[in-house]
Amino acid sequence: MNSGCFISIEGPEGAGKTTIINMLANELIKGGRDVVATREPGGIDISEQIRGVILKKENTMMDARTEALLYAAARRQHLVEKVEPALGSGKIVLCDRFIDSSLAYQGHARGLGVEEVYLINRFAIEETMPILTIYFDLDPVVGLERINQHRDHEVNRLDLENIEFHRKVREGYLLLAERFSSRIVTIDASQPLEQVFKEASEKIEELLQRMKP
Ligand SMILES: Nc1ncnc2c1ncn2[C@@H]1O[C@H](COP(=O)(O)OP(=O)(O)OP(=O)(O)O)[C@@H](O)[C@H]1O
Ligand SMILES: Cc1cn([C@H]2C[C@H](O)[C@@H](COP(=O)(O)O)O2)c(=O)[nH]c1=O
Predict the structure, then answer these.
(1) Which helix or strand (DSSP H or E) is residue 120 part of?
(2) Rounded distance, CA 178 to CA 185, Å?
(3) Which family is this protein grouped under (predicted)?
(4) Is 11 annotated as a binding residue?
(5) Global confidence as pTM
(6) What is the ipTM metric for this complex?
(7) Which end of the chain is more exposed for a tag (fewer CB within 10 A), N or C?
(8) Whose atoms come closest to the Cα of 200: which ligand?
């Protein structure tokens, strides 16, 4: 039985997920909360190894179903090794991407089908879902410009997909946000960083107040 609070942060490339998760984690820790900030694919050794295989620029031959299965495998290991133990000990888990990434990227943008991709992920995650998902919505042209200007950003195989693919990813996320509106909240990520942070922080605080016994 989980007693912690599982929150995922979603959005296209360059939406500000990593930057804002760090800011949110610092703020929550300062407020005396126990927080684990992590990412997908990755977050622990086995899943980081799988991330290396999926995102290696040279792996251009990777089949779409292989890609979906590898994301689900990385997710499973990360969940059982890191996320669930943290939730079990009452922590707040801030996860940079989770199942909605697979539904938007592999299900919608790659065209594998959201329902099919959900089914393999259901096998991977069993019952564990975020209680809140914050989706940072952004025009992919803006997001890709941001990461291209940021010299330290690792450019990966998915970043190199064409703009139509990235537009489909956004479309996929918007459909998910509409369909799962009680879980997914959308924030306009084209706003200044401080405003995006403020809105995300308010959503989390509202949730934590609601969860108080
Ligand atoms: N609201 C914002 N306005 C302007 N620049 C921003 C904003 N949010 C983030 N950035 C900048 O955009 C770049 C990408 O941000 P970040 O790495 O946090 O995005 P991300 O969503 O984690 O990207 P990816 O999914 O590709 O890893 C960074 O240089 C960051 O400083
Ligand atoms: C979890 C997950 C991720 N992706 C894609 C999204 C990004 O292009 C990369 C991860 O890189 P980031 O810099 O850490 O954002 O992987 C995906 O297609 N499906 C997924 O399930």
Answers:
(1) helix 114-125
(2) 9
(3) Belongs to the thymidylate kinase family.
(4) yes
(5) 0.97
(6) 0.98
(7) C
(8) 1
